[in-house]
Amino acid sequence: MADTVDPHAVPSFALLSGASIPAIGLGTFGSDRFTLEDIANAVGVAIRTGYRLIDCASVYANEHLIGPVIERTLTEMGLPREELFVISKVWNDAHAPEDAIASVKASLSDLKLDYLDALLIHWPFPNTHERFAAPDARNPSSRPYIHAEYMAMYHALEELVDAGLIRHLGVSNMTLPKLRLVLRDARIAPALHEMELHPALQQGELYQFSKDAGMVVIGYSPMGSPRRPDRDRFEGDVADMEHPVVVRIADEVGAHPAEICLKWAAQRGHVAIPFSVKPPQILSNLRSVTERPLSPRQLYDLRSVEANSRLIKGQVFLWEGSGDWIDLWDVDGTIPGWGGYGTTAAE
Ligand SMILES: NC(=O)c1ccc[n+]([C@@H]2O[C@H](COP(=O)([O-])OP(=O)(O)OC[C@H]3O[C@@H](n4cnc5c(N)ncnc54)[C@H](OP(=O)(O)O)[C@@H]3O)[C@@H](O)[C@H]2O)c1
C-alpha cells in the first residue's frame, strides 16, 4: 500500500472567504509528553504524507522548530507555500492588543511565513498556567471573561487581517453567550471555531450555532486525547477509542477506532486535527477520511456515544472567587463574573 495520500483526495470545507481548508490536519501540541523536535519532525512527515493543514500555537513552544521543517519540506517537494493551511494561536498571556500583535509577528517569524492562513484566539481568558501545571494549580492574577478586553484584542487582530498578515480570524474554546457578543461586535466575523470534539463530546448546540454563523468548526482531541496531560485526567472521563460502539463499528469497517473517530468528524462536517509523531498513525489517520466512509446507520449509532465527556476542562484557568471548572463554560447561558455564576464581570 502507498505510504502517501493524494491531497486532492482529502475532503475539504469552504470558508466564508471562499478559501478551503482540508478536513484533517496535524495537531502539534505534544501534551507535555513528546519532545519539541519529534513534533517538528512529525510536521515534515505529515506534509510528505499528504497533509496540507498544520495546527500550531505559540504556547506549544515549537513553532521555531516547525518553521524550518516547513520551509525545508516545501523546498524539497517543490511545493508552493499556498498549498499549506497553517494555523497559529495567540496564547492567554498576550491578550493586551500590543502583545497580541507581537505574538502574531513572533509566530510568523518562527514559522518562517509571510502570512498565517488562520490565527485563533486560544482561550477567551487572559489566564495562564505553568507548563506541567498540577490539576489544582491556580494563578492569582486570573480573571473572568471581560468582553471589552477580548474585543480590544480582537480589533487589533482585525488590523492584521487588513495588513495581510492573517487570512482568517478564529476563536477557540468559546461558548454560546461569548460567541453572540463577539459576533455582535466584530468587524471581521470569525471564520473558524476550534473546540474539543470527539464522539463522547459532540457539543451539538454550540456546533450548530457556530456553523449557522458561517464558521468552519475544527475539532481538537478528535480521538479523545489518550495522552493528554495528567492535569486533564479525571475519574469518569470516557475513553472514546475503547467505547463499545466505536469498537464495534471499527470491527465492522476493519479499521482502528482512531480512524472511526476521524471518519465521523469528516462526515459530520468538521475538521479534525489528530496528533501523532508516529509515521504509520500519521498515514492511517489521513487515509481514513479518503476511503470506506461510515454508513448512515453507523453515523447514527455514533450519536449514542455522546456522554458530555469534556476532557480539557480548563480548571487551571479559574480565577479567585470562582467555583469549579463549570464556571468556564457558561452552561446556564450567562457568563460568570468574579464570584462565579450570578455575579457580574468587571467591564
Ligand atoms: N484549541 C485548543 O485549546 C486545543 C486543545 C487541545 C488540543 N488542541 C489541538 O488538537 C491536537 C490533537 O489533540 P490531542 O493530542 O489532545 O488529542 P488526539 O489527537 O485525540 O490524541 C492524540 C493521541 O492519540 C493517539 N493516536 C493518534 N493516532 C492514532 C492511531 N491512528 N491509532 C491509535 N492511536 C492514535 C496517539 O497516542 P500514542 O502517542 O500513545 O500512540 C496520540 O498521542 C493537538 O495536537 C493540538 O494541535 C487544541
Structure description:
By secondary structure, this protein is α/β, with parallel strands linked by helices. It has a single domain, classed as NADP-dependent oxidoreductase domain (TIM Barrel). 34% of the residues lie in helices and 11% in strands. The strands form 2 sheets. Strands 3-4-5-6-7-8-9-10 form an 8-stranded parallel sheet. Helix 6 links the parallel strand 8 and strand 9. The longest helix is centred in the middle third of the chain and has 16 residues. The protein is globular and about 60 Å long. It starts with 11 loop residues before the first strand and ends in a 45-residue tail after the last helix. The model has no long low-confidence stretch (mean pLDDT 96). The structure holds NADP nicotinamide-adenine-dinucleotide phosphate. The site of NADP nicotinamide-adenine-dinucleotide phosphate has 29 residues, from helix 9.
Relevant CATH superfamily? NADP-dependent oxidoreductase domain
Distance between the termini: 58 Å
Query: Which ligands, by name, code or SMILES, are bound?
Result: NADP nicotinamide-adenine-dinucleotide phosphate
SSE string: EEEHEHEHEHEHEHEHHEHH
Name the CATH class. Alpha Beta
Helix content: 25-40%
